[in-house]
Amino acid sequence: MGGADDYYVKGERRQGILFYLLLAIVCQVVIIAGVLAYDYIFNTPVREIMWSAVYFLLVLSTGVAVGIFTYDWLGRFKFLQFMVRNSLKVSTHSFPEVFEAVKLAASRLSMEAPYTFVTQNPAVNAYTVRLGLIRKKKVIAINTGLLKAMEGDELLYIIGHELSHIKYGRWRRFKDLGLPYLISPQFNEFRCDRGGLIASRNIEASTRALLKLVAGREFVDRVDIKSIEREKTEEMPKVLRKLATHPMIDARIKELLRFYEFARL
Predict the structure, then answer these.
(1) Are the CB atoms for 99 and 116 separated by under 8 Å?
(2) Is 186 within 8 Å of 245 (Cβ atoms)?
């Protein structure tokens, strides 16, 4: 993805380091707790009670894990049923302009074009869907509301963003190592925005596409994109910023413009 691998949003570069530091601390705590528990159990007369407690906690944690997995699987299965009933796979004969846009964006991102579906939904949105439990193949779903709102390179930008989700998932490159975006998932959205720009190769269309996600086609002309770059917006509280899955649109536009200047696409 060219310069996308060399550009970082503030704080993004530390993601992998923090993850492995936290992982090391957790492992140390678990090992120390295990050693202390072992010594305590085998040197006290109540070891049978302790073993019963340990067994109970193991059974309880296993039940909770199975419950969460089952709930997630049933929810995903229900969603996939809905998508199958209300979607149509794009091809050279069905939504050929979308089919060609996916092929072009995938070639610019040096990846294979995934299956893409169009679904009847007025919301201006597109997303990736994971199919299967073992292979976990991902496809792109595009709402008809988004097709109505986006034009030309704007659609290429949105498709490139979703393709980047498939290519990188929740991981990024850091000195040839794959490290997860776990502490702040917003960095993953910034990364995929870069992929969208590389796919569209049009900064005006890319920023306009981002605006249409919140303003729609009817009201996008009421927003001055240049003023967004100049304005100092109040940031969200740090806790909310850490927990939110997506950054605010104005922040995404600013970072996309900075990346454009950095990469000189």
Answers:
(1) yes
(2) yes
Whether pTM > 0.85 for this model: the answer is no
Q: For residue 119, what are the domain limits?
A: 2-263
Q: How many domains does the chain have?
A: 1
- Each as own residue / partner, the long-range contacts of residues 183-187 (CB below 8 Å, 24 or more positions apart, any chain) are 183/15, 183/18, 183/19, 183/242, 184/11, 184/15, 184/241, 184/242, 185/245, 186/241, 186/244, 186/245, 186/246, 186/247, 187/9, 187/11, 187/12, 187/15
Q: Do 189 and 128 meet the contact criterion of CB atoms below 8 Å apart?
A: no
**Angstrom distance (rounded) from CA 98 to CA 227:** 32
Could you write out the three-class secondary structure of 141-191? EEEHHHHHHCCCHHHHHHHHHHHHHHHHCCEEEECCEEEECCCCCHHHHHH
- Show Cβ contacts of residue 234 under 8 Å, excluding neighbours closer than 6 positions: none
Torsions phi, psi for 170 (to 5 deg): -100, 25
In this structure, are residues 112 and 106 in contact, taking their beta carbons and an 8 Å threshold? yes
* H/E segment holding residue 82: helix 47-86
pLDDT tens for 68-100 read 777 767 766 766 666 667 788 899 999 999 999
Distance CA 262, CA 177 (A): 23
Q: Tell me if 1 sits within 8 A of 161, measured CB to CB.
A: no
Nearest to 9 by CA among 142, 172, 218, 164: 172
Which phi and psi angles does 124 have, rounded to 5°? -80, 90
